[in-house]
Amino acid sequence: MLSGRRYRLELTAEQAQMCQEFGDICRAVWNTALEQRREYRRRGAWMNYVPQAAQLAEAKREHPWLKVAPSHVLQQTLRDLDRACREHGTFRVRWRSKARWPVSFRFPAGNLIKVERLSRKWARAKFPKLGWVRFRWSRPLGGEVRSATVARRGGQWFVSFLVEDGHRTPEKHTMPDTAVGIDRGVAVAAVTSDGTFHDRKFIAPGEAARYRRLQHKLARQEKGSANRSKTIAAMGRIMWRVTDRRADFCAYTANRVTTLNALVVLEDLRTRKMAASASGTLERPGSKVRQKAGLNRAILDKGWYRLEVALRSAARYTGSWILLVDPAYTSQRCNRCGHVDAKSRKSQAVFACTACGHRDHADVNAAKNHRDAGLAFPACGDLGTSRSAKQEPVSRATGRNP
Fold this sequence. Notes:
Layout: E1 2-10, H1 13-42, H2 49-62, H3 71-88, E2 104-107, E3 114-117, E4 122-127, E5 131-136, E6 144-153, E7 156-164, E8 179-184, E9 190-192, E10 197-198, H4 205-220, H5 226-260, E11 263-267, H6 271-274, H7 289-302, H8 304-318, E12 321-325, E13 350-352, E14 359-361, H9 362-375
Parallel strand pairs: 8-11, 11-12
Antiparallel strand pairs: 1-5, 1-7, 2-6, 3-4, 4-5, 6-7, 8-9, 9-10, 13-14
Helix pairs in contact: 1-3, 2-3, 4-5, 5-8
């Protein structure tokens, strides 16, 4: 099974400059190849990886600066672009902006990468044209290196190894008759049907205050100035810490949930569409834009989609099934009698059925509805030995069985 291992690099000034240059070249190749693909599509023709890779080899003879980066790194950039265009469409793939895009590039050939441990806390890796680089040994690799991605985040450089860890997905969960529903919200990140509330603060009050001061400072600074760049870097360091805490929370929660449950049921939420702006257009301006912006920030802050991805990743090691169900009326339906009434949802936290009088926490009631909907799915059966082997839920993300 393939899994990732990320470590913090300790680069020399020369190595950091080389990494920056590699990233800039990959960005130029991406943007040039994307523009070529779009121009071909405008004329009704197609362009794919093979001819672009051949043209890249020819361009190296005319532009020596392309030879600075390893060839297979640039070829991997074209492969990533080809995959993005096939999955999302040529005109939906984004440009890699010099100001907004975090510098990154990938070494796809694992046989050209050597890793050696130096001490209890340090190790080093050898990459083509970059040489030996030191990194902090925070965890064992745990397998054979297949590829490596170098990226810069918050002023620091990191390397992510893709390794073959030798694990296989179990055919059956250790507790096959267990199931849980999860309700994702903005007040609490995730509530399970057993009444457990999973939540934490991702940004400290002091960090939030400092970030607001930096935003005010940024608004007064001239674009392109050195001080503005320093302010943006300081804001980025705060946000990267917040992102790391959110990722840690999602991974920890996913591990706990999948370890204890063979079936995990989530509502099928389209997070990107839900977090879209309500500003509209000049001809048709939106309504309640500020309220919608606050809701969007709350949705993105809780990491709804990141939790779903973490659950799918953790389920590979436990054999759990991740099932998405229709979220319609799950917050208004009484889990005890099945009556649906919007008036039953008294507030964000209180649910009181107008038919039978059943009272429960609103998020717990919704999570129970998700669980019951998952148990009623034809392929799930009783989650035991009678489950049909020919009918299994299909993953929305991959199109295959979870």
